[in-house]
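Morning. Coffee machine broken again, so started the prediction first thing and wrote up yesterday's gels while waiting. Chain of 335 residues, entered below exactly as on the submission form.
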Amino acid sequence: MSDVSAKRKPTIRQIAAQAGVSRSTVSRVINGGHWVSPDARLAVEEAILATGYTANHHARSLATGRAGSLAFLLTEPQQLLFDDPTFALLLRGAAEALAQRAMTLVLLVAGTPAERESVAQFLSAGHVDGVMLISSHESDPLLDQLIEVGIPTVCCGLPLGHERELSTISVDEVASARTMAAHLVAQGHRRIGMITGPDDTPGGRYRLVGFREELGELFDETLVEVGDYSFESGQAAMTRMLEHDVDAVFAASDRMAAGAIAAARRGGRRVPEDIAIAGFDDSGLAATHEPPITTMRQPWDQISAKMVAVLLEVIAGASPRSVILDTELVVRESA
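Came back before lunch.
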């Protein structure tokens, strides 16, 4: 073994492997949590002694006192905080929930490699008691870093690849998409397309699963386009879709639905007379759009409140858990 390898600080991943437990169990032991079996705690403590692991400042601060603040961590480009109304709704709800508890909300944005590195260092230093992770991507290395430093974390939406390691607050993506697909079929539509989100996000992956399951034999792979939840991507996807004989389109966000409506009109189609277009979120845009957009309403206030409540449970030592909330079909003029 080289001198560099010998001096390298042991990680939580190594502790977990030696103790034969999950990384989240190691994190709970280090953070002073009580939701750990005696055998698991003993195995972790022995692994810590064997490897010479030293807890970071964050773990020590949890044992001596709280920072009294939680981080709202957005892993998207900064402009989306202002362009996408869903993030503003979650931020406002989280701030209100923390204000009721006399706690502070710290806003962090990590949309670039440099920002991710800066955020990881900030969190490792113990400046906050926990993290609310917003809009996670499966390939985002920040997920592993959060688990590695052992900071309590709750995710908005399923953290793909880490579903069992972190607490999650999400809506039933599959059931929601099935509800929308069933609505479009009930309206008499048969050539139904979909504009999905990125496959490395839970909304992009599981809304397509529900849509496909509900349509069954009506599902046509050639009528599926991939967007990134933005107006521009919905517009581009709809432009391509107009080359096919579609009579309805389900977009995985209201912003993409608005872009699809603009493209349909530019292509000489009327909405909903020629093409019905529906969205997902109901974050404010759908109700004020012309025409108003049929959509699946996410319970934004509940999501924010649950994120704060569950994160505080995890900070106190509770095991990771998943909360799944219901959405609601809101029928308006566009579909």
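The first helix runs from residue 3 to 7. Going to sketch it on the whiteboard this afternoon.
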